[in-house]
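ingest -> validate -> predict -> emit
validate: passed (alphabet ok, no gaps, 251 aa)
predict: started
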Amino acid sequence: MFSRLREDIAIVFERDPAARSTWEVLTCYPGLHALVWHRLVSHRLWRANWRWLARWLAHWGRFLTGVEIHPGATVGRRVFIDHGMGVVIGETAEIGDDCTLYHGVTLGGTSWNQGKRHPTLARGVVIGAGAKVLGPIVVGEGAKIGSNAVVVRAVPPGATAVGIPARILTADEAERREDHAVKLGFSAYAIAADMNDPVVQAIHRLIDHAALTDARMEALIARLQQGGVDCGDAQATADGFDPQRLNRMID
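emit:
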C-alpha cells in the first residue's frame, strides 16, 4: 500500500510543476485522494462482492473529491488525475499504468447493454481537459487526446486525436506538436496552443490552393493577351474571392 502511495506522490511531482511538497500533495490533491479511496476501499469491496457498500462509499468519494470513479473500474499504477473536478470513470473502464487525466474527462459508455461498455486506456495515455472517450474502444499506448475532444473510435498507439468527433493527426502534425511541447517543457493538456483541428488545416490548404490557382490563371491570361489572343470571358476573375479573409474566418 505504502509503496503505491509513494509512486503516486512521485508521479505528481513529475507531472505537475505546481507541486511543492509531499505534505501539499497529500492534503491538496483531490485526484490523489480519489485514487487512494478507490484502490483501498471501494474497488476492494466491489471485488469482494460487497456491491452496494462499494457504490455507497464511492459516492462519498465523489462528494469529497469531485472525481467519480465507479468501484468496478480498473486503475493501473502511477495514474495521475490533475485537478480532478468533473472526472467520470465508468464501471468497465480500464486505465493502464502511467496514464494522465485532466479535469472534466469522461470515460463513458454508449450502450445500455451489459458487458464491456467503457474505454480501455493502454500505458502512458494522456487525456486533455474536458475530453470524452466513449464506448468499448482502445486508446493505444502513448496516445494523446486533445482537450474537449470527443473520441468514439479506437486511437492507434502514439497517435494524437483532436476535434469533435476526434480525428487522428498526421505524423508530421503530431511531430510538430511534440516539438512545441518540448520547447514549453511539457504539454499539459495533450495539445499545443498552436495546434489546429486537422479539418481546419485541410480547409486552409484548399483555400491557399484556390488562391494559387487563381493567380496562375491571371498570369496565363496576361501572357496570352500580350501575344494578341482575345481571352473573352476568361478575363473575369472570381469576384469577391479573398483567401486571407476566408482563412481568418475559420481560424
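Residues 109 and 135 are 5 Å apart (CA to CA).
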